[in-house]
Amino acid sequence: MNARNIMLGVVMTLFAVPALAFHCPTDMKKIDAALAANPSLSPAQLGEVRQLRAQGEQDHRGGNHRQSVAVLGRAMQILNIQ
Question: Which of 14, 34, 62, 66 is the most buried (most CB within 10 A)?
């Protein structure tokens, strides 16, 4: 592996982290909009979505964006958000 490839990898990594950071708020807004529309979910599912939404926000604020995206993704899956 040459120095050029290493530098390219470093630059790509630096740009990937902010992209993940900005993805979390978008997902949270989608979840909030879906919850505001009174989805047809069981009380248990609604509770799980709310818990996942809160955990995703906590992870985002703590800088753990990969975890936040994963947790919010589970909430979005329950809500059937694309």
Answer: 34
Domain ranges of the chain: 17-78
Cβ atoms of residues 30 and 76 within 8 Å: yes
Q: According to DSSP H, which parts of the chain are helical?
A: 3-36, 43-61, 65-78
pLDDT tens, per residue, the chain with 82 residues: 676 656 555 545 555 555 545 688 999 999 999 999 999 999 999 999 999 999 999 999 999 989 999 999 999 999 999 8
